[in-house]
Fold each of these.
Amino acid sequence: MIARNIMRRKEAEMALRSSYEELEKKVLERTAELLTKNEQLQKEIAEREKVEVALQEGSEKIKLFAYLICHDIKSPAVGIYGLARLLRKQYADILDERGKTYCDQIVRASEQLGALVEKINGYIAAKEAVLEVALFGVEEIFAAVREEFSLQIEKRGLLWIESAVSGKIRADRIALTRVFRNLVENALKYGGESLSTIRLGYDEREDCHVFCVRDDGMGIKCEDYDRIFGLFKRNSTDKRVEGLGLGLASVKEAAERHGGRVWIESKPAEGTAFFVSVSKSL
């Protein structure tokens, strides 16, 4: 009996030792596997960091290149504009009608080139510039935009209407002013002959501020709603209007950087309303 018990105990000890050795083997294998995976993960992280650095450097180079190109283009554009006007003014008695027409065309072309440079700079600023978030009154933005467009509004005999607001928001004042500038420019550019009224609106919601620029112009087709916010996309309603579509792309960038979005309500021949939301969590 004693011998049998001893034998059973030895068998149990051997089985326990075998189980322990098997468990230790699995632990070592699992540890080696985890170490291998950790090394692979570290390599992937290092590679991603390299890619991110390269992308950041590439972005900075592209941004710098764009700024330099805009600067280099703007200077000769201003020079061409000034010289063409001077030529038209001082030599009007010498130039025939064709010569005067050429001068006028040069002036318009240089104006368009200068405007293009400003649009590119505006888009870069909307996408890349650090947001300077501060507290200010909504009416301050309305007043700045109203003053900027007062001459054009008066010249075209348009009715300008603003929502009565007195609240304050936290946002980038310059970026938000640029948003309204682009939307009002869009209304003036694409409103057509039927345009008679431009309205600036504001609505405070639970989690965001919502701004609106509404006009009673010729409207936008449904199929254009999404595409016009892309780079170099334009409203196809009026092919006679020149432009590269950078303004609305800048509006979209500014809205998204403020934790918001931009959307449209429009019907052809019934006008257009652009809405821009700004998050309250800035």
Amino acid sequence: VATIVVALLSVAGVAFGIVNRLAQEAERAAAREAIMAEELARQAAPPEVLVVTPEPTQFDPNFSITGTLDPVQETEVSFNVGGRLVSVNVTLGERVREGQVLATLDKRSVTAQGQLASAAVQASQAQVELARDRLQRAERLYAAGATSEAELLAARQQFALAEAQLAQATAQGRLASTDGSNHVLKAPFAGTVTKVPEGTGLVVMPGQPLFRIEDLSSLVLRSGITERALARVQVGDAVEIEQPPARGHVRAFAPSLDPITRRAPIE
């Protein structure tokens, strides 16, 4: 009887354990199904969003650039020929007009060259007259049968040579006159003198910068803008300079980006 009781108790314990395990598995399955149902319901529900009231605002199309203010026109002025500087007619900071004489070089050598060229022209003109007279006489003699065709041809060649020498002398005279004008240096445009030689007496070379003239009547700022800003720029747009305080406008720009900086030039 005791053995039977123990066996029955053992069987009852095993049965209880099985029933308990099945109950736990059923609870876990129900929990999983509840979670899945909640997830499916959440996915099927419309998304939650934050609703706000829009506020009107004004779009500001301004953008900033940096650059350097330069004179609208500036240049270094020099003589086309070399020589000794004999006069400086302007001072530093002086306002000059277009064509005003800035300085002069020694013209004595140019004067001598001009006189020599004039004398050469007169001599060549005399040679032309003599060659013309000889040619006329040769043509009359040839027409009368008193001279040969070779002598007539020689007279014509001498006349042509005399005319060529006259043209050469005339060209040299013009060159000497041009050299004389090159000894006077004039302002190419109206502006302010910002550079002058230290004094007279020095020997200058052709193309040596002696004066600097800047047109300060207006200033230009050269810079670059981005591709996005380029789409909003037009010629004539207002520009406000911060330092120094001033106002201006866009006078030119090129719709082409630099391959390195990726910016477009603007003035």
Amino acid sequence: VYSRSCAACHGRDGRGDAAAAAELDPWPRDFVTGKYRVRSTHSGEPPRRADVEGVVRRGLPGTTMPAFGGLLSEERIADVVTFILGVGPRRPIGREPEALRIPEFPDAQPADLADGRAVYLVLGCWKCHGLNGGGRGPSAKGLRSDEGPRLMPRDFRYEPFKSGRSPATVARAALSGFIGTPMPSRAEIMVIPREAIDAYEESIPAHVRSQLVTFRSTAPSAAELATMDDDAWEALRDENLVALAHYVLSLDRRHGFFYRVFRQRPESEGRPPRLEESTRE
């Protein structure tokens, strides 16, 4: 199955080095290194088997990786994933990596979006993804993957998300990060003490600092965080994570008559090059 359906891009041995690879954006995944970016596991952990099967089944929006769910049976998908995982780093037999715990996502309220904007600013997401989510923040230029190609941060307004657009997929990306890229895990800093907001405020553009006022007024102090038990800490983490995910999705500008007419299936399109620069991701 791999030879017929995957080797033309990912290479005979799974190293992502087939003849067609150089023309693709992003480059095909190197299965031998095992650096999977679409995962439901903690930072630094390999993917769960279901993560890889899901990518084979539904493809990766915004890339040239197609969906094989309508082409291969579930048995064939399981077979090819067994091969793909087998050429990578050794995995413990009979044990899957722990899955991230993703909270429930109620409908977004205006207060959630305001808090999400504040989290977006304080965590520094804007430095790469831009204040408007357009992927052109002050730190965006010159970013590279571990493999070497230059890349650009995701444009939250118009570009497809590889895992699809949903609060849960945004939350997983924030918690797990993308291995092999400058996108780190935010899992350990999602709970933000008031002192951290004060310390970071000067680095945020002056014209948006007022957007932190309400969020800061409700943020706990470092001393208060130190007295929290695990359940209270996780509840606060979930609150900030939900707000951030809703805010990122609110940046979507893929609406309106002309967009629907001329880009009817944006989640199925490959990612276009920007300004003749390599943007492999």
Amino acid sequence: MLPEIRFWPQEERSFLTLAVVISSEPDTDVQNYGLYRVGIAGNRSLTLNLLPGSGAGRHLEQWRSIGKTMPVAILLGADPALIFAAAAPLPPECCEDLFSAYLKRTSYQLSPCQTVPLNCPTSAQIVIEGWIDTEATLNEGPFGCYTGDYGGSNECPLVEVSALSAVLDPLIPLTLAGPLPMEDCWIAKANLEIIRARLSVDLPEISSIEMPLETAFYGIYFITTTDSLASVDELFHRMRCLDYLARIKMLILLQESDDVSETNWRGILNKIPAGQICQDPAADLEALLSNQPAKLQHDARLLETLLPRLGIVATESIPPKG
């Protein structure tokens, strides 16, 4: 039933890129909704790309610790608000289904799954139920990423499918990852609104934060602050301690007069002193940007802007403490 789509030439299997995965802790009924890449590994098996520290990733460790298989439900064609909520950087105590219901101004109708102890929204186009052997993994193979390289090739949990239900003529939404800016950049832009709201509570001295579409998913942010004595290195460290900014790779501290937009951010970045830029050397953005395959390579203007700055920052910026 599922579409056999290969997005980029070196991919070895078909992927589902907007799959909402439902999981739960072993001893509670509270469900987590996450947006994870799903690979089609066989007629009855799927791979799940779960990032360490993600909701389903934490649940997997809990099920592994008690030696039991983990139930999951995979929604294809979920409500768009739920797809967004599953990818959003929400506070840990915020339930994705309640947040998406708030956005829609209406609640979801849930029904029990057939073969796993989970409940699914009845609005989904396809529901795939299955169990994860917490000790079994399969390499998902390469996947053409939004960072302009072939990522993936991770050892991923393997889902053995136990049931599948679908509406008549289901619609399966997918998003194409690749050279930025792409369509999934708008999810990142929407996520930035949530980051702004959370920062206003956690670090109120940060007065603005911006992320151009072309740098979406690279972990590059432009900020201003009301604290004239704050250093970019200190702010980088403090922001990285927040769960929703833990993957920040480059921080640019602006003057209050700097107004970053989609059209002028390159010029601003070129004139910013190196002492106002902090980057994580372990992220190796320079290598990532320099070694992009031809079909995945980003706009040459992006490379021309970022690569010279990365070279300067590597020699002049003070690495974050701690």
